[in-house]
Amino acid sequence: MINAHRCLTWLAALGLMGGANCSSAPVPEQAQATSTPLPPGFSAYWHQGKAEVTSYTLDQARYGELHRGEAVLVYVTEDLSRKKQVKLDNPSATPDDAVPVLKLNLVKKFATGVYDYSIMTSTFTPTDQGRFPHTLKVTTSVQEWCGNAFTQLNLRPKGGYAVSQKSYFESEGDVESNLEPALLEDELWTRIRLNPATLPTGSVKVVPGTVSARLRHHPLQPEQATLSLADAPAGKAGQAGVLAYTVAYSTPSSRRLVIYFEKAFPHGIVGWEETYPDQAGSAKPQMLTTRATRKKTMMLDYWRTHNNEHAALRDSLGLK
After folding, report:
1. Where is the signal peptide (predicted)?
2. Tens of pLDDT along 284-319?
3. Residue, of 61 and 159, whose pLDDT is higher
């Protein structure tokens, strides 16, 4: 049974628990951190040598309008280097350096008028939240006809994140900065799949999603938010047995994210809604809601299905 009032043990010790950054410094482990058990069936589902690939219809807010597109969530387990925070080519050769993670690649594609956007966020969250209570790394790339933008967060040994940002906008440019310890919005998507019973609720400092910050041209910094977990409203998620995890930011952001997911394991993401004042290309902000609704889910070793003969799998996923 999901306990909506249970808070992550690591949350209470933010800034004290160890992690890694992109340097060669070792990752300290927190002795007082207690292991959070993974749900029954976790290994059988996530360690079968395949990724979970789910397609979604997408209505994306941009320039004062909603634009139809597609989204894909690709979840897969792999081993990340503790020292370098990159995927290990041969984990068995350096077992002490390997950290098992659940990786999410969240992909969005949509067109605005004549030109299109291609966006991807990669999040790397350790499966053992007792030893490694923080997400180790997040990267986001945004491509559109004006140019490229890139953001990377690496967990530092003493807490917080080292942030590297690249952009074609002069005001954003090339920036190296640091974030104080805080919960990452981007890691909520992986923590739901690992064990939704550990999702924090109440008033919490949260670093907004890297895509949202980019599209709104907001600085990446922790904001106060109210987090809640409840049954999804009737008809909201299109089916019974669905929970709604809500992140409601305080002013000045006034942004609200709701992630809908299944109560039952493996807690598939049914869809999401993101509401905020859209100012891009408009003198007067308009409150718009981006929505994504699940179409198809497949367990797929997609890295082996790259030939022309495999193109029919896109039809099976309902992708254009």
Report:
1. 1-25
2. 778 999 999 999 999 999 999 999 999 999 999 999
3. 61
- Give pTM, 2 decimals: 0.87
From 160, 275, 273, select the one nearest 207 (Cα to Cα): 160
Structural domain boundaries of the chain? 9-306
- How confident is residue 172, by pLDDT bands cut at 50, 70 and 90? confident
**Per-residue confidence at 37, pLDDT binned at 50, 70, 90?**
confident
What are the structure tokens assigned to 133, written together? 């209570």
In our burial notation (b when 16+ CB lie closer than 10 A, e otherwise), range 100-125 reads ebbbbbbbbbbebeeeebebbbbbbb
233-291 residue pLDDT tens: 887 655 789 999 999 999 777 899 999 999 999 999 999 999 999 876 556 778 999 99
Contacts of 135 (CB under 8 A, 6+ apart): 123, 124, 125, 126, 155, 184, 186, 187, 190
